[in-house]
Automatic annotation (TrEMBL):
It is found in: Cell outer membrane. It comes from the Bacteria. The keyword Membrane applies. The lineage of its organism: Bacteria, Pseudomonadati, Pseudomonadota, Alphaproteobacteria, Hyphomicrobiales. PANTHER family: BLL7405 PROTEIN (PTHR34001). Belongs to the Omp25/RopB family. This is Porin family protein.
Length: 268
């Protein structure tokens, strides 16, 4: 009897195995790749390096060419570096499995300032004698912004390398001052302290790497170069011209910046 029961159990197990072998096997659901398409907004921290080149020309133009002879060159670097904080807003479009296109705007602030005493190009001989009381001054950048197109490539479904380029803006301030001192003074008409400000427009280009975390958070490292051209600004025009004196000079300031940041954004 026991032998019969064992035979019956064996038959049932064999039948169950055969039935299980005939059942269709259900494959696990595929894991979908994250999509980069959509709007995002973020904040960034980093640094901005400003390359200023200050060149002075037309010192005391009333007296004609050759009266002022520079003895230490006409130009000099006035570079600076500062911490930068900012924010950005953009939109991505994933138009192929591995390609991303988009547009982004950003705004940032940094206290880039460089002073010089004397200003480059103001040291020299005037009517054959060395000038004294030379002007001091500074160059200062505060806020910057840009609107850029971006093109990225996915090295993995969650990691993108990208390049960017577009239009940039920079707030720039120039200052110069000098006092009247005994002798062959640079400012031999009136003392001066003048500041001029301008929002400069230029171009920018750069690139970076961005990684998607959890489908909504975008962590990035970004670098940009920007060129704002040359600003030509006359100084000491008001009250600096008259019979027997001419305090004027012209500054030509070329500005370029390098900006490196890390950022964290949320994709909506």
């Amino acid at each position: 009897m026991i032998k019969g029961i064992g035979s019956a159990l064996a038959s049932v197990l064999l039948a169950g195995s055969a039935l299980a072998a005939d059942l269709p096997v259900k494959a696990p659901a595929p894991v979908s790749a994250p999509t980069w398409t959509g709007l995002y907004a973020g904040v960034s921290v980093g640094a901005r390096w400003a390359d200023y080149d200050w060149r002075t020309s037309d010192v005391s133009p009333n007296f004609g060419l050759g009266v002022f002879v520079p003895t230490a060159g006409t130009s000099g670097a006035m570079d600076s570096a500062a911490a930068r904080i900012g924010g950005y807003l953009g939109v991505n479009w994933q138009f192929a499995p591995s390609w991303i296109a988009g547009i982004e705007g950003d705004f940032g602030w940094a206290d880039n300032k460089k002073s010089a005493s004397p200003l480059p190009g103001t040291t020299g001989l005037f009517f054959g004698g060395p000038l004294v009381g030379l002007p001091a001054g500074s160059v200062k950048d505060s806020w910057d912004g840009s609107v850029r197109a971006r093109l990225g490539y996915l090295v993995t479904p969650s990691t993108m390398i990208y390049g960017s380029g577009g239009v940039a803006w920079q707030r720039l301030e120039l200052n110069a001052s000098c006092a009247v001192v005994p002798g062959n003074s640079f400012c031999f008409g009136n003392p001066h302290n003048e500041t001029f400000a301008s929002t400069r427009v230029g171009w920018t280009a750069g690139g970076g790497i961005e990684h998607m975390i959890g489908g909504h958070w975008l962590l990035r490292a970004d670098y940009r170069y920007a060129d704002f051209g040359t600003w030509t600004q006359p100084f000491f025009v008001a009250g600096g011209v008259g019979v027997g004196f001419d305090d004027r000079f012209t500054a030509h300031v070329t500005t370029r910046t390098h900006t490196a940041t890390v950022g964290l954004a949320y994709k909506f």
